[in-house]
Amino acid sequence: MSSITFSTLDSLPGPDLLDLLRRYAKANKKADPVGKALSWHQDQVAISLGFKNWSMLHKHLASANWSAVDQLKTLALKKPDLGEFVEEHAYKTIDEDDAAETMRQWARAKYSRLIDFAFYDNESETGFSWPAVEMVMELGEEFSGRYPQVLIEKVGLDLEVDGPWGLELSESEIE
Predict the structure, then answer these.
(1) Any residues with CB less than 8 A from the CB of 151 and at least 6 apart, and which?
(2) Cβ distance 45 to 82 under 8 Å?
(3) pLDDT tens digits, residue range 51-61?
(4) Are 17 and 73 contacting, i.e. CB atoms less than 8 angstroms apart?
(5) Contact 17, 57 (CB under 8 A)
(6) How many Å apart are CA 172 and CA 117, to the nearest integer?
(7) Distance between CA 72 and CA 60 in Å, rounded?
(8) What pLDDT, in 10s, does the model give residues 113-143?
(9) What is the pTM of this model?
């Protein structure tokens, strides 16, 4: 069982950014000689990022789209101590085999090999009458940030060896 540690900084989701900011506030509380409450340290983090308090930051991140999270992450990275903390701690360790199997299962549940349901078509690129999906791209859209890109590409290319793959629609979806 091999594990992979990778940076999540490029595709950090909102909940993970909030967790990093919370961990930064906890570290500051631990180092505080005066012994101020954790809520005070959390509020200081929020204020440094332009929010009235921690609650407003939390509310913002709960409903933020990717672009808003990325803007907030960029702002946090510009703060000297906070930025260093985020860069140092934005890592995740996963089990490579479990992650690969999760991606394979997801792909097989959503897509089918064209050879299993599509008619042959000599004039198409794939040789089938149905459009193929780019498995690496589909896996990337689903698992980016959760797993490293190199693993996503490896699993996608492995699946494409058995492919091409397509999205098989039921008769009610076709009509």
Answers:
(1) 4, 96, 99, 100, 103
(2) yes
(3) 999 999 999 99
(4) yes
(5) no
(6) 16
(7) 10
(8) 787 777 777 777 776 777 778 889 999 989 8
(9) 0.63
